[in-house]
Amino acid sequence: MRGLYEICGCLHIHFHLPSGKNAIRQVAAEAERAGLDFVILSSHTPGETVARRYQPLFREEFVQGNTCVLFAEEADERAEHSHLLVFNVSRWTGRRPLEQVLSRVKEEGGFAFIAHPEGTHRLFGGFVDHRWKKNHLVPEVAGVEVWSLLFDWAGRTTPLNLVERYFGFPDNLCGPGARNLRLWDTMAQERPAAGVAGLDIHPVFLPWLDVKRNFRYQTVFGVLRNHLLLRRPLSGTLSEDKQAIYAALRQGTLFFANDHLADSRGFFFGAPDGSWTMGEQAPAGSSAVVSAPQECTIRLIRNGAVIRSVEARQGQFRLEKEGVFRVECLIEGRPWLFSNHIRVGNCC
Q: In angstroms, rounded to a whole number, what is the distance separating the alpha carbons of residues 176 and 166?
C-alpha cells in the first residue's frame, strides 16, 4: 500500500486483574485467534493497598504468534468521571489528581488519551456518568477515544430494552457521538490529536447469561478495530514493535472502523504516492486520494464540517485551504470508518 504497512488491533481491554498472567494469556490467545496484529490491555488502576502486588503485570508484554500484546492503564482520580488511557509507562499512575497522573506519564515518556469523553449509561436503571470533565487538561493529552464500543451500546440500553439490545448487538452500534467528534476536531485544529476506537470490554463474570457470546473477547475483537499505517513492517521483536505501534497511535497515522459492518482493510487517505497520510502534514493545494475497500459514502471533512460527499469506492480531492481534513465512510447511512486528520499548510 504505497510503501505503507497496515496492521490492525484493539485497545481499551479489561481483564480479571486478580487472575494476573493467566488472564492476560487468555486475552492474548483470543486476540491471536481473531487475527489481530496487536492488542493493548488497559486495567483500571487498583487500590493503593494492592497496587504493588500487580505492578509486575507491566512486564507482561510479549509477542504471541503474530500478535503483539501490550499492557496499559485506565487511570482516574478515584472518581467515576474523567478517565485517561495511559500508554507506554512502567508503573501505575492513577488514583491521584489527573494533573499528577499526566506529570508522571510525561516523566516516563508515555502518553495519554481521553477515555469515553461522553460516556454515560442507564444500563442498570440509575444514571452512570463517566464523561470527561477536566477540560483544562485537554492540551496535555495526545488524543481521544472517539468511538467507544461499550458506550455506543450501553448508552442506548436500559433495563426495559436490555434483551432487545443484547440480541441486536453488534448490528445496533450507531457510531461515535457528535460531541466526541466535535471535541476531536476542535483538539486537532489547535495541535495534533490522534483519534482511536476503544472496546472498554470487561470480563463476563456470568458467562451463562451471554448466550450469544456477544461480549466475549473473540467476538468484540472483530468489531471496532484500529488500523495503523507503518513505514516498516512489524519485526516480531517486542521492543521494536511496541515502539512502532505506540508511535503510530500517538501520531494518529491510522483509521478506525466497525469491521463487523464490513472489512475495512486496505483503506487509504493521503498522497497518491504515500509520501504523507493520516496523522501527517501536507502542503496546501495538494491532491489527496481516498481509496475504500468497497462502495460507500465518502465524506471529506475540514475543521469539523463536511465539504464534499460522494458515493464511490475511490475519490481524489484538492486540499486547497489550510486546516485539518479527515474522512468518514458510511455504508447505507451507517457509520463505518473514520480516518485521522491530515494537517494542511501551516495549521496547528
A: 19
Query: Phi, psi at residue 24, to the nearest 5°?
Result: -65, -40
What's the CA dihedral at 190, 105, 99, 155 to 10 degrees? 70
Pick 5-260's CATH classification: 1.20.1300.10, 3.90.950.20, 3.20.20.140, 2.40.110.10. Answer: 3.20.20.140
Strand partners of residue 206: none
pLDDT digits (tens, 9 = 90+) for 179-224: 999 999 999 999 999 999 999 999 876 676 788 888 999 999 999 9
Which residues are within 8 A (CB) of 341 and not within 5 positions of it... i.e. 6 or more apart? 185, 188, 192, 193, 195, 252, 278, 279, 324, 325, 326
Question: CATH code for 263-348?
Answer: 2.60.40.10
The model's confidence at residue 259, banded by pLDDT at 50, 70 and 90, is very high
Please state which of the ranges 49-58, 101-110, 169-178 shows the lowest mean pLDDT.
Answer: 49-58
67-80 pLDDT, tens digit per residue, is 999 999 999 987 78
- The most distant pair of C-alpha atoms in the chain lies apart, rounded to whole Å, by 57
Domain edges within the chain = 5-260, 263-348
pTM above 0.85, yes or no: yes
Beta-bridge partner residues of 256: 226, 338
What pairs with residue 297 in β-bridges?
Answer: 311, 330
Burial of 255 (0-12, 13-18, 19+ CB in 10 A): buried
Terminal-to-terminal C-alpha distance of the chain: 28
